[in-house]
Design brief:
single chain; 271 residues; alpha/beta; Ubiquitin-like (UB roll); Rossmann fold; nine-stranded mixed β-sheet; three-stranded mixed β-sheet; elongated
């Protein structure tokens, strides 16, 4: 029987037949290509995240206070934390950083935000001081905290709060970071200042004067130049109420020439 040759084109009737040529396996090549591309992308990402330093925190912005000393101190505390822990924007624990800052400093509030790719934005709200102390002879101002400790020296234009201004009648030593005056005196002055502002805003408190830091006697000067004499044993509400009545009934919204002494609740002296 003769061998048939199927390698050539031929026809059977009206139908043409061709020899089938094998196709290349392009699907497998594409799979390998995409696999290599994905691996390259993953390697680039891993390098960028862990080895390039692109996401290492390099900028720290602190806002919320006009006190450059406080801003610098906050930046220093943050720098200490970053030097001891992962300073990576992706892995930094904001919660732990907040705890660390609050353990070193006192703020009314603290907000920390991560900013891509390597920046921290920190907003502080400083704890409100209790007093603004003025040295005798107008030789500088100091913030005093609620415990009676001197916080820092400050320029008058940097004061961000409505604080009672307290002055000494005699030269008084003052050291930053040291206990300065009793908490009883701190609270009394702060509270009566707020009570007068609320009940007798027309009185216009100018400043408080203390003979020394151990005294119990307090003079409250107003902007008209006269003062009210009281002491730590007085009841704040009673003193303010009595002063309010005196200004209306006795002084006709004016005041005495020099002072009103309200230290004795059953006796009033004025000059």
């Amino acid at each position: 029987m003769p061998r048939r040759d199927y390698s050539q084109h031929h026809r059977h009737g009206e139908v043409e037949h061709r020899a089938v040529k094998p196709k290349r396996n392009t699907k497998k090549i594409k799979q390998i290509f995409w696999l290599i591309l994905i691996l390259i992308i993953l390697l680039v990402i891993l390098y960028s995240v862990f080895f390039s330093g692109w996401f290492e925190i390099k900028k720290v912005s602190v806002s919320g206070s006009l006190q450059s000393e406080l801003i610098g101190q906050t930046e220093g505390v943050i720098a200490d934390y970053l030097s001891q822990n992962k300073a990576h924007i992706l892995f930094l624990s904001v919660e732990n950083l907040e705890k660390y800052i609050n353990s070193q400093m006192e703020f009314a509030s603290l907000e920390i935000a991560k900013k891509w790719p390597n920046k921290l934005e920190v907003k502080i709200d400083p704890e409100t001081p209790a007093w603004l102390w003025q040295r005798l002879g107008n030789r500088g101002y100091f913030l005093v905290d609620r415990e009676g400790v001197v916080e820092t020296q400050i320029n008058l234009d940097q004061v961000e709060w409505d604080l009672p201004l307290v002055k000494p009648a005699t030269t008084t030593d003052i050291v930053v970071g040291k206990f300065f005056v009793s908490k009883e005196m701190i609270d009394f002055v702060k509270n009566i200042y707020q009570e007068i502002q609320k009940e007798i805003p027309s009185f216009e408190v100018d400043f408080f004067e203390l003979e020394n830091t151990q005294t119990r006697k307090i003079k409250i000067y107003n902007k008209a130049g006269w003062y009210v004499l009281i002491n730590l044993d007085n009841n704040i509400q009673n003193v303010v109420h009595l002063l309010k009545v005196l200004l209306v009934d006795k002084f006709n919204e004016g005041g005495p020439a020099e002072y009103v002494d309200l230290r004795l609740e059953d006796k009033i002296f004025y000059k």
